[in-house]
Amino acid sequence: MSCRIAPSILSADFGQLADDIARLEAGGADWIHIDVMDGRFVPNLSFGAKVIETVSKLTKLPLDVHLMVVEPENFFDSFAKAGASNLTIHVEAAPHLHRQLARIRELGCGAGVALNPSTPVESVREIAADLDVLLIMTVNPGFGGQSFIASSADKVRRARALLRETKSHAALEVDGGINRDTIIQVWRAGADTFVAGNAVFAAHDPMLEIGALRDLCTERA
Ligand code: DX5
Ligand code: ZN
Fold first, then answer.
1. CB-based contacts of 166, cutoff 8 Å, min separation 6
2. pLDDT by residue (tens digit) across 61-75?
């Protein structure tokens, strides 16, 4: 199994977004992760369709859009139109998950579900086979630059088992506090897609950092 690195532009310098995106592409990023926050589901505001559209004009890389919002269905159409490749919604904000995921796929996007640290992996068992992305939050969502929650590696192991049991082909993504020290644990636990904000953008050389993170995903224990 190979790994995907998905830098989060939450940590980018928006005064030079085009340069930052070009650097991510040159550094070999697989997906661009775009964090949408509404100040309600999480205590922070970020950006919406306009920024997704701007990024989609700057790159051919898939745009992995993470909706940390209540009533995420209000944004599906505009985000799909703006160029989102994946739309990942939080199970805690989506009581009608089955219908919402179907709508995302109808719009031609990959359908993803994210789980907060306190939400059990079992909450997605019934729809696991329909998922394109299962995102395990390894911090409480809302901010970049937080510390990885140590118990997350075990949770990723349980998530990998659940995907295997349900014969799901979903990507198993982790998000929050991923860096050179933590990526190995979650890779070995079975994650295949790694969001990294601070680790990439605060690095001396963001382009090299993408490769450095990827190089750590070589062997499973
Ligand atoms: C957190 C966001 C993350 C964030 C990750 O709520 O979902 O995608 O940008 O940032 P780092 O890698 O700095 O923890
Ligand atoms: Zn995210």
1. 125, 128, 129
2. 999 999 999 999 999
